[in-house]
């Protein structure tokens, strides 16, 4: 009797179970030959104005994405999407509401790397677009089409589009472009790896072959060309569209005007002469290497400091000594500016770190990776709540840490391949796992923190901890060089790590650190040190706003034969 009841129960359950839909993905014949390994994304979006591939975000308006890996695809075959794959913002396909959507299939190509550490990994490769999966040349996708989703009807999707190669920028009178093969990185990755740089030269560079210049090194995300420099006035009849980030109209005209104003200062006879460089060092994990040596990404710190920078200085008459180099940048670039100063203290003479990524991992945004057990949840005896991840200047929260990580889990899977923010932190800071991929700092689904990995992060990349641990050795070479700026309402809570770092810096002695730390009142990401102007203006003035401090530093530290009036050195 019990057996009959059990059978009947199974029949009832199976009759009520939802039917898993199918999605058959075919590739155009001329595109299929370039695909072997990769990640197949299936995207749903409610707004026809934006392609689904461009609509995945941390915001509540995000498109829906589900992803699955595949290997050894054979041209001519179709791909069947696995609806059991993890999704974001909705984890399970069964919970996607019925309705009309624009659907798109997208393939992120993986390439095989035989690294010098003996590991063979499959991962996307930058194609000089800055490791942006939705824009990577060679990735293929379908033209979005409108569907009526009921959770049962199958989908037939045809991939018929390919992203074309990037057009490289051309040299101008003031801006030159470098593409440099790094031996260190090529040896590590087992193939030719190049670094790039956009170089802004001072006025009359060709007319004064005996002049040599200090070097301003701007760190940040992958730039397609040198930004914020324009030799012509703003365009006529610019449409004054609304900029949601800054809540103003006509921001494009403001950007063009600021770029033109910078050019006019740059060529004026009383403006100090120096070289400004912006790096391109995208890699398989992100649009930026974080400019340090990493087990997973490779020796980018050494490659930039000992290969690329000397090459640029030799080609464009940089002075070529550590006292003549200054680093600055915001967000990722802010962390890099401080990191290279700390890790190569004699090679740089000052850093200006604005809104830096977490520089003390006791405040890794809102997570203390050393004491917290879980990155996603705050657990009490009677209540559990999610940990906040993103806010505005009023403190209104728009995303949780779990949401931001689950987005990357859907996009890139479990092997740190999304090309996004949390994955690159893991790629840079973590040791290599047994499978050759970065060892997770926490379980990307559950949020449980691995304390062994956390300790590796601490000893190698927690900048506050490293300075405090090694101040007796580093202090003398860092004195007067550290400048940090952050809004006290940074969207990603980055000010919390700055507070902790400032607490240490103010306690330093023999020597006292001798720099400055400043906060912007109610300023969001990325405040960079000027309380008299709004963020949307100061973010356009990185190349001029620290010059007075740099000039003072040069006066204090330059050799006696350095010409302070024109910032030149005759050899």
TrEMBL record:
Keywords from UniProt, A to Z, are: Signal
The signal peptide stretch is: 1-19
Enumerate the InterPro entries for this protein: AB_hydrolase_fold, Mycobacterial_A85_antigen
> What is this protein's record name?
Esterase
Q: Which organism is it from?
A: Aquiflexum gelatinilyticum
